[in-house]
Amino acid sequence: MSRGDRVDLAFKRLSDEGRAGLVTFITAGDPDLETSQNLMEGLADSGADIIELGMPFSDPMADGPAIQAANLRALANGASLRRTLDMVARFRRSNDQTPVILMGYFNPIYQYGPTRFVTDAVESGVDGLILVDLPPEEDDELCDPARTAGLHWVRLVTPTSDEKRLKSVLKNASGFVYYVSIAGITGTRSASVSAVGDAVARLRSHTGLPIAVGFGINTPEQVHDTVEVADGAVVGSAIIREIEKNLDETGAARPELLENVSSLVRTLAEGARN
Amino acid sequence: MTPPTASTEPLESYRSGPDERGHFGIFGGRFVAETLMPLILDLERAYDAARQSPDFQRDFDYFATHYTGRPSPLYFASSLTESLGGAKIYFKRDELNHTGSHKINNTLGQILLAKRMGKSRIIAETGAGQHGVATATVCALFDLPCVVYMGATDIERQAPNVFRMKLLGAEVVPVTSGTGTLKDAMNEALRDWVANVEDTFYIIGTVAGPHPYPAMVRDFQSVIGREAKQQIEQAEGRLPDTLVACIGGGSNAMGLFHPFLDDPVGIIGVEAGGLGLQTEQHAASLTGGRPGVLHGNRTYLLQNEDGQIIDAHSISAGLDYPGIGPEHAWLHDHGRVDYVSVTDSEALEAFQLCCRTEGIIPALEPAHALAHVAKIAPEMDKDQIIVMNLCGRGDKDIFTVADVLGVEI
Q1: Model-level ipTM above the cut of 0.85
Q2: Does A115 reach chain B within 8 Å, measured CB to CB?
Q3: Per the count of CB atoms within 10 A, which of A167, B42, B205, B307 is most buried?
Q4: Does A110 sit within 8 Å of B37, measured CB to CB?
Q5: How much is the pTM?
Q6: Do A137 and B21 touch (CB under 8 A)?
Q7: What are phi and psi for residue A92, nearest 5 degrees?
């Protein structure tokens, strides 16, 4: 099977089942490497159709307080880009189906070396990339080598993307398109259902790619409302906050953390199914 | 590891950058979230139009003259020259500007642009508080609401500037994420901007950030170098031998350097060496860092192997930044400007030297430049000339200095 196909197959499966997908986000290594590995496996088992795995960065400029804290927890406990790839490789030993999309900022990859990174990412079983701070203007940095290596390049489209902008944003997009439903950072406010509906409809007239919507989606009801119009709903900060709630005073994972996160993801997945 | 593409080929001109994509060689660029891209492109168009507009230039010059008090004097520091016993030392006295530093040159330019673009809300980041004060000042002048992000650590060590901003009507938002210094304040300002794209103009305080900021801030600050060039011609009938300026992000330095880049003049940028380059407790991104991507541009950064940004350290809050403007990174790789560093204690010594010999209390930032001047002037001939940018006054720093000297005030 050629790489990158996991994403296409996942959306095909969803379409065959007549439903939309749940995309879940966690930060690799949060709160610690081992718990994070178990969380990743738990997400897939609890109904996540696609996993977005955050590559930890010291200065996550597009993220709100919850994901900022997750990044710092992960880094404090030894996370790194190499270990993020290792996490995916380990995940692939038991799961060859759920697509894994790495999401983050460019500097760690730039230091790792973009060419070496895309090779290692493919080898580890990564399916695609979302880079917050690489707009189309900087495509030669990573988008081009990533697509050549067979990775999907998932583009972020925002409420500020006007018609003219959409053309350049969608040009090198593949796998699916991630519509950021608010102008803002993660985990803060939510867009209205109708605004999202209008934006997705407009987006569909420009692309045949599946469209996932994220930012500000916290509850099964919001997931449900989102998948009425989109092909997938992305939940990030709500899961991160559940992780945070299940840490003890020293910041270590409580024994019930995994089960509590899984149970949240199960209710979110139901939102995507009904 | 991606190696820096160093080039030693001399260029025909060092004043032609950036290219149309905002790159100075490999440095610069527009590494921002998609939400901001349409805005950045708008800003670029608006700035291009403004700088070609006689009206805009007229307004800028008017406020520079009548509000800021330009031109700032080029002062021959005779006592200091005598006490160091070498080259003639001139101070470009941008500490005499309204608000006490060079920062107002840039905030005036940017707020005039914000007005032209019809923006109704201003945000800024600040380290030492000088840029915050300069932004709050022009917001008061032009009656625009102003939010300044400032690291909690910096708020503590720059209390007088915090109060100044508040008096001027700005809201000062403490930033506790990260280490609560300038880098975190800039992250937070960017987060605010992403969430308020419609009405908000972000006044960046230094020659960093996504294109067009590095070029735009440089252009507004270049008034320093243009004046200095005229003034030294008048005073000495020739160009100086050496220019010296301190560098955090590098706006005062770029302002002084840029008009001289194609002239036969030695140019030295002085980074903050903190406790020493061997300690990791410093802010010398060029001498102690390597190329990376942060805050919208590629430049030299203090970072670990994994590309995580390392916190800078300097006694001077205004130099306490783990990056540097991309044009400096480019000039460094081309060897056109020499970049050196000065430690906290050397800067502190120069601070006191300036007070005693010239009766001028400098900010801790230009005290770094002065410490280097004190090193090189005695080695130079008496007919050689150094021009140093005295870019800020030291009133804001007296508490920090008293604290280090063990004096209670």
Answers
A1: yes
A2: no
A3: B205
A4: no
A5: 0.96
A6: yes
A7: -65, -20
